[in-house]
Amino acid sequence: MSDVDQLQAELLAEVVGAGTLDAIEAVRVRALGKSGSVTALLKTLGGMSPEERQAKGPAFNGLREAVSAAIGARKAALEAAALDARLATEAVDVTMPVWAGATGSIHPISQVMDELAEVFADMGFAVATGPEIEDDWHNFTALNIPESHPARAMHDTFYFPDTTDGEGARMLLRTHTSPVQIRTMTSQQPPIRIIAPGRVYRSDSDATHTPMFHQIEGLVIDRGIHLGHLKWTLETFLKAYFERDDIVLRLRPSYFPFTEPSVEVDVGYSLVNGQRVVGGSDGWMEVLGSGMVHPKVIAACGLDPNEWQGFAFGTGVDRLAMLKYGMDDLRAFFDADLLWLKHYGFRALDVPTLSGGVGA
Fold first, then answer.
1. Pairing between strand 126-127 and 192-201?
2. pTM (two decimals)
3. Residue 184: its pLDDT value, please?
4. Strands 283-293 and 259-272, sheet pairing
5. Which segments in the chain show pLDDT lower than 50?
6. What is the sign, positive or negative, of the torsion defined by CA atoms of 12, 18, 21, 25?
7. Residue 158: what are its φ and ψ, rounded to 5°?
8. Residue 126's pLDDT is what?
9. How many other CB atoms are there within 10 angstroms of residue 48's CB atom?
10. 355, 345, 356: which is closest to 111 by C-alpha?
11. Contact yes or no for 171/165 (Cβ under 8 A)
């Protein structure tokens, strides 16, 4: 047996005998490290003649490859055994009783939804719901949004590919809860006074926008309704929700296809420790859009716009939660972070009431 064969046999025996990851690493250093036995043999090739290198080089390289492969295989086996042992010790018995200290929390969105329902119920509004998968007519056409309107563009709306409702209407994820207003006006006679909370979907994502978010809209249809009724409703709602009497509103002319006239609603805010707090008069902040229901929308629902008038408004529930409870990133609402929920969540018994305070 040559010296190379003898060294290979000794090293392979050491590899087999290594019982821990530290032991196999020690074998690697002794064999393949800078001062290792295999490395020393390879260094001697530089001082040999071409003929000697041609004769001994393949044997030396074969030794290195054999030892390296054996070390790699043994290391993989030891790591697998260590992982199996760790998994065995970290097994969880799912049949064990729940830890008494693991209490749940109400998500801020759910809490704010309840707060809004409580506020509007006091003003005589009912809660209406509708499907999240809508057809083109309810989501756009009936709301006086023409084919060329930017809101129909693919970058705003999630359309279902090649899907219709059986009558040719294209299907989509609703972009607002306004279709609930249409379904209500086509299914019941005025007077109507509803709010429509729910999830809506738009192709947008950043610190203040998410592809899915929560919206609440309101609708009133009756005889003799005018813009003054809208302003009083919004002012009463915001004062009750934010639980402050110093709420000041500013209505700015705007444009929405489904209302005429249309107004953006700003609320006064004050600066507290560098943060905007709703209430006061340090500046103005936009909180919702609104307006008088467009006569074409009323007519599309089978009602006579000369007899019936109304107003509508809409705002993001997530944004209302951020403004009231001091949250600065909308994306955290959907991260399922238990620490975040423990900090911002509500106890199950924190039921909103106007007498006790909707945010109590």
1. parallel
2. 0.67
3. 96
4. antiparallel
5. none
6. negative
7. -90, 100
8. 95
9. 13
10. 345
11. yes
